[in-house]
Structures are given as structure tokens and as C-alpha cells.
Write a structure and sequence with these properties.
Length: about 170
């Protein structure tokens, strides 16, 4: 029998990839805004998962996007970087708090300020690594910074909206 947590993770993986590839990659808001929703999967992975599992899941997610978008591994590198930073960021944002067998990060579990900060930092780091790996030079430095900031803010809006719509607050 399949563990419900793994079933939930697999379903979420498939859904974020479908939303990213079928909808968001075809949404042309501007030259500087590229919404990234697939990181919702990495953000919401349970904190109790072993680090190697988190890295493997990040790599699998990035590789899936690289395959479908025909990119040379930039999504894989950026997603693995975020999966690597994630547990350290969670500990940094929660000093003295025992993460223990904490479920996935959520507004219910940690509060809106914590979740928004956690998501914002991960999205910002992801976009920074993604755009500079894509550009691979400092020639378009300022346009990359603008793309990074605008895409991060739009992606954060998508993540927070999804968190709010799918995960009801406790009473």
C-alpha cells in the first residue's frame, strides 16, 4: 500500500508540472515576467524528508522541466540549489524551534509571515540562479535583475494565492 504522503507528493509533482508547462509557459505577461509555479512543489515538501530525498526530488522536477522546455539543465541546477538551501533556510527562519517531524511548510503550521518569507527567499534565490545560468554573463546584468525581481514577485503571488485557496486556515 502506498503511503498517503508519497501519493500526495506524486500528485502535486504532476500538477505543478502540468500547470507550468500547459498554462504558465504560454502566458506572456511581459518580457520581464516569467511566472514560475513549479517551485510550489519544492516549497511544500515535508521538512522531515531526508536531505538526499529533497535533492533528488528537486533534480527530478528540474529535469522534467528541462526535458519539456529543451533547456540545457538550468532548471535542474536551480531546483537542486533550492532543495539544498531549503532546510537551512527553514532552520534560520525558525531559531530555537524544533522542526521535528514537521509536516510540509504551510501558513497553518508556521504562519503567513514565515511562509511568505520562506517562499520569497527561495523564489528569489531560484530566479537569481536560473537567470544568471541562462544569461551566463554580466552583459545583461540589469535586465536580469529586473526579470529576477518581477518574476519573483509574480511567482510569490501565485504561491501565496495557491496556498490560501488550497490549504484552509485552522479555526
Amino acid at each position: 500500500m502506498v503511503n498517503p504522503m508519497w501519493l500526495s507528493l506524486i500528485l502535486r509533482f504532476v500538477l505543478v508540472v502540468l500547470v507550468q508547462l500547459a498554462i504558465l509557459n504560454h502566458l506572456h505577461l511581459s518580457l520581464y515576467i516569467h511566472p514560475v509555479f513549479y517551485l510550489f512543489f519544492v516549497i511544500k515538501m515535508p521538512l522531515s524528508l531526508p536531505k538526499w530525498v529533497q535533492l533528488l526530488m528537486g533534480f527530478s522536477l528540474g529535469l522534467t522541466l528541462d526535458i519539456f522546455e529543451g533547456s540545457p539543465g538550468i532548471h535542474s541546477a536551480a531546483a537542486v540549489f533550492i532543495a539544498f538551501v531549503r532546510p537551512y533556510l527553514a532552520s534560520f527562519l525558525s531559531p530555537g524551534r524544533d522542526m521535528g517531524p514537521a509536516p510540509e511548510p504551510s501558513v497553518n503550521q508556521f504562519g503567513m509571515q514565515w511562509f511568505a518569507t520562506f517562499s520569497f527567499v527561495l523564489l528569489l534565490l531560484h530566479h537569481f540562479s536560473l537567470y544568471f545560468l541562462e544569461e551566463f554573463s554580466f552583459a545583461g546584468f540589469f535586465s536580469s535583475i529586473l526579470r529576477m525581481i518581477l518574476s519573483t514577485l509574480f511567482s510569490l503571488l501565485l504561491v501565496l494565492l495557491t496556498e490560501y485557496l488550497l490549504y484552509r486556515p485552522r479555526n
